[in-house]
Amino acid sequence: MAINWFPGHMAKTRREIKENLKLVDAVIEIRDARIVKSSANPEIEEICAGKPRIILLNKSDLSEKPITNQWIRYLTKENIKVLSVNCVNGDGIKNIKPVLDELLKEKHERLKNKGLVKITDRVMVVGIPNVGKSSFINKMAKNNIAKIGDRPGVTKSKQWIKTKIGIELMDTPGVLWPKFEDETVGLNLAFTGAIKDEIMDIETLALRLIERLQNDYAEKLKERYKLTELDENPLVNMDNIARKRGAVISGGEIDYNRVAIMLMDEFRGGKLGKISLERPISINDAE
């Protein structure tokens, strides 16, 4: 499943990030706590190398806390700090300012030595589509400046947003990379809604999600859909879920489109419980 999805506005965004990096003091990269590796644009790592960076693991309310904490330990480096946040209700947001002050301590001391009292830090906000950048910016600015949408690609152009805590944010549109070589990465992005549903067949996507969940979260799958047991075949499980939810049409035939949409919506909304689709231990370069 080699998905090629690189619209023109994303190529433009990549260029703009490179050009505007010199205007900011640091970078805040937002990832999805459920798919920390898959929601990391590898080009961001390359483009922003050398800049102080804070990685926010957003939607932490939907992920398993122990696994999220493993990711925090794994990703933290001298010039990179990692925080767990929920950009919708604001959990963890208050920790950003002191962490940014720590990263920019030398710059602040230089400016204070020059007599500057009020210091404003300029920070670029980056991340893949639908990861929560606009929700984060609105929470920081305490109003709805940035557009919010549950579909990828809502933010279309760069904009500056001021906050009341000495941080000025540069918003950028969500940007993916040209090609997903790893099928798992493409699936994880599709599961969480970072890739538009129109690009993939939602019935196949739901079937692949069931396959993943029955291996890693069997009990949650059974509990949510009141299944006494799971079959090895994910299609059988999908049929059973459909019958439990009444997703059938005349003659008892399964309405696969209906059950697929229901399943994806409930997973993305956290109704199956806290789920982490990736763990640091599974990363090849962690070995």
Automatic annotation (TrEMBL):
Record: residues binding GTP: 58-61, 130-135, 174
Principal localisation: cytoplasm
Keywords: Cytoplasm, GTP-binding, Hydrolase, Nucleotide-binding, RNA-binding
Keyword Glycosyltransferase: no
Gene Ontology biological-process entries: translation
Ranges of residues in domain CP-type G: 11-178
Any one GO MF annotation of this record: GTPase activity
Location(s), subcellular: Cytoplasm
Entry GO terms, CC: cytoplasm
InterPro entries: G_CP_dom (IPR030378), GTP-bd (IPR006073), GTP-bd_ortho_bundle_sf (IPR023179), GTP-bd_ribosome_bgen (IPR019991), GTPase_MTG1 (IPR016478), P-loop_NTPase (IPR027417)
Pfam annotation, one family: MMR_HSR1
PROSITE patterns: G_CP (PS51721)
Signal peptide, first to last residue: none
Function of the protein: Required for a late step of 50S ribosomal subunit assembly. Has GTPase activity.
PANTHER family, per the entry: MITOCHONDRIAL RIBOSOME-ASSOCIATED GTPASE 1
Family per record: Belongs to the TRAFAC class YlqF/YawG GTPase family. MTG1 subfamily.
NCBIfam families: GTPase_YlqF
Protein name, UniProt field: Ribosome biogenesis GTPase A
Organismal lineage: Bacteria, Bacillati, Bacillota, Clostridia, Eubacteriales
Gene: rbgA
